[in-house]
Amino acid sequence: MRNEHLSQAIHIEMFNYLTRVLESKVADTSGVYQSFSILVLAEVVRVDRHSPFLSAEQRDYLVNVGTSFLTNVKDYRGFSTKTGWQHSIAHAADLMLQLALNPKVNKAQLDKILVALASQVTANDQHSYIQGESKRIAMAVIYVFLRAQYSADDFNLWLSKVVNPAPFNQW
User: Which residues are paired to 122 by β-bridges?
Assistant: First the structure.
């Protein structure tokens, strides 16, 4: 994809297939199939950023599917000696980054992206990020705010919501 060897038709086919994978309710017990589908989808979105081929409706659908996936991730495994990399949070953050970089993604879509990223700043189930996930979330957030759709006050408000230490008021 990065060498532009695939046709637009192939990119559309990949987009359609990968978004269906993310929407599926099929159990992904290994934590690999959906995680790597979203990573490949991030590359498809990168192609769309450089040579737009998605319609506004497809892009909106993608934002909805991607943010829903990220918000609902409960599997925080990064690397497993049994199956290798799983990394759903990091891979979903990579998709959010590519969307944030895309000038055709509008402010309402960026707002959804910020909500989804905020939902995973602090992992559920007392998990701590140790395999680069926090950096990848942060990069996506930074590039959303670099889009000049937001003010410094907007950033400070968003940040104040994700750094609230409750219920641990003395962290």
Answer: none
The count of other CB atoms within 10 Å of the CB of residue 129 is 18
Beta bridge partners of residue 84, listed in sequence order: 80
| Other beta carbons within 10 Å of 137 | 25
Q: Are 99 and 45 in contact (CB under 8 A)?
A: yes
Give 126: exposed, middle or buried? Use CB within 10 Å, 0-12, 13-18, 19+. exposed
The predicted model scores a pTM of 0.89
DSSP structural state of residue 95:
H
How many residues comprise the chain?
171
Phi, psi of 84 (to 5 degrees): 90, -150
- Supply the pLDDT for residue 26: 58
Tell me the average pLDDT across 131-141: 91
Rounded-to-integer distance, Cα 123 and Cα 144, Å: 21
Please name the amino acid found at residue 33. Y
Using DSSP's 3-state secondary structure scheme, residue 84 falls into: strand
Match 């637009």 to its residue by tokens.
Answer: 8
Q: CA 118, 121, 125: angle at the middle one, nearest 5? A: 115
